[in-house]
Amino acid sequence: MKKWHDQFENRHQHWRFYHLDTEQLKVTPRTLLAIFGTTALAFCGVLVETSMNVTFPTLMQQFHTSMNAVQWVTTEYLLAVAATMVIAGYVQSRFTARSIILTAGSAFAIGGIMCAVATNLPIMLIGRIIQAVGTGCAMPLVFALIMRQIPQRKQGMYNGLAGMVIALAPSLGPTYGGTIVEFTTWRLIFIITLPIGIIACLIAAKNVLQPFPVQKSKFAIDQFALILIALIALTLAANTLGTAGPASVGFIVALIVAVLAFAGFIMRSVKSVHPILKVTIFKNHFFALAITIYFLIQFGQIGFTFLLPNFAQLTLGASSMVSGAMLLVGSIVSAFVSPLAGRLMDSIGIKHLVRIGSVLLVIATLSFSLLANRLTVGLITGLFTVYLIGFALMFNTLLTFGLQQLAPQQMGDGNAAYNTLQQYSGSIGTAIMAALLATGARMAPHANTAHQTLQGAQLGFYFVTAIMVIVLVLSWIITSKKPEAAERG
Fold it and tell me: If you write DSSP's letter for every residue of 319-361 in order, what string do you get?
């Protein structure tokens, strides 16, 4: 017990020293260039992640495969990013920032080249995994550099700017990918971003400073293996649900494996002196509530960015460029709403924001469900804009509110949990939407592709509506109370 108490005190003293020390820092040009380069590399990674959603009908034809198979182009990418982010804390303490940046840039380049020259789906999937590792290394490092090398009084501004730049990537992704597919070839999606990512990597690596010495520590391989197995098994269960149904042996076995692996990870993490993620943070009820809602609305948002472009192309006959562009309006509006929501949270608290946001989410998803047979490109654009306004009112405010509930020494684990669940919610959301589209095809086996896609999309709309009703209920539990972490301090 004394050993654990001493470790806690040491970490607490280190946190206090760190925050006092950051006040003495000056924002030098080298610091700005390092943050800029790392942010640009992360931006490129997220851009190629979301730009591929509008290419699926084209990839289905070129690779002669099904939608359920092609969706792994996005699903496994997000899954690999999430798995990498789980160990971000360990990686940043064990290796230098320059090494992490060079690794991230190399993975982005190697994976991008493999995807650009891929002649079949397996080669592309391998390239996507490699590229995802680069994104999973770069994105957490952006905010780690800001927290370690920017004075505390300016960290909010820099975090907001970096977050806004990275958030632009999923907004631009579908339009970028759709435009390229419309006029040239999907391979240019990777070719164009390659030099940008490489230059960004070199700028960051040349200018990054190492604020703390690296520490040799033991990697909890058993915990990482268990969480990785759990994430993969749950994704496979969602994928099998669409191809074989809920009564299939594959679905049941994958679900059981996922549950057992998650249970094993929690048990090992609780007992470990050096856990890769302290699951005890979820004992904080308001943190657990905030991150649950955060996960659910991200699930819906990424699920829609997969479902809507494919619905527009396969059912409405829209081009890939139009299918991507119809999501752009809502994304741009939400980019302006998000910082406004942050300022409103500071003045009026989170309660009203999440309640208004959740109502908008239910209105949008229910409208999609009821009007599925009458949807047009214009109507999809309008309803998705309403959805993203509600999403923007909640997303970053839930992250801020959740982290405010934690003690200072728990911040790293809280950030890791948010980053991992953000990416994994996209992976599982894409897998489930693809499964529902496949279910729609099974429900109408003799119908044409347009009708099969409509059937599957309706299932997807109703499913997301049900999720948002749950969000609405949970949002009414959140109060604008004084953060528990602040009360403890």
Answer: -HHHHHHTTHHHHHHHHHHHHHHHHHHHHH-SHHHHHHHHHHH
Distance from the Cα of residue 431 to its chain's centroid = 14
Other C-beta atoms lying within 10 Å of the C-beta of residue 93: 14
Helix or strand run (H / E) with residue 402 = helix 377-404
Dihedral, 404, 406, 410, 414 alpha carbons, nearest 10: -60
Cβ pair 132, 47 in contact under 8 A: no
Q: pLDDT tens, 4-31?
A: 344 434 444 444 434 444 455 677 888 8
List % helix, strand, coil for the chain (3-state, nearest 5). Answer: 85, 0, 15
**pLDDT, tens only, 183-230:** 889 999 999 999 999 999 999 999 988 766 777 777 888 888 998 898
Pick the CATH number of 280-489 from 2.40.50.140, 2.60.120.620, 3.30.365.10, 1.20.1250.20: 1.20.1250.20
How distant, in Å, are the alpha carbons of 26, 84, 436 from that of 440? Answer: 58, 33, 6
Task: Report CA-CA distances (Å) from 486 to 278, 382, 483.
Answer: 20, 40, 5
Dist. CA 284–CA 405, nearest whole Å = 7
- Cα gap 199→75, rounded to integer Å: 27
Which H or E run contains 204?
A: helix 188-207
Reduce the secondary structure of 241-272 to three states and give it as a string.
Answer: HHHHCCCCHHHHHHHHHHHHHHHHHHHHHHHC
Contacts of 294 (CB under 8 A, 6+ apart): 394, 395, 398, 399, 402, 418, 421, 422
**CA–CA distance, 114 with 119 (Å, rounded to integer):** 9
Answer yes or no: same fold for 24-217 and 280-489: yes
Q: Which of 430, 444, 453, 454 is nearest to 69 (CA)?
A: 430
Q: Write down the domain spans for the chain.
A: 24-217, 220-275, 280-489
Its pTM stands at 0.75
Which residue type, as a one-letter code, is found at position 345? M
CATH number of 24-217: 1.20.1250.20
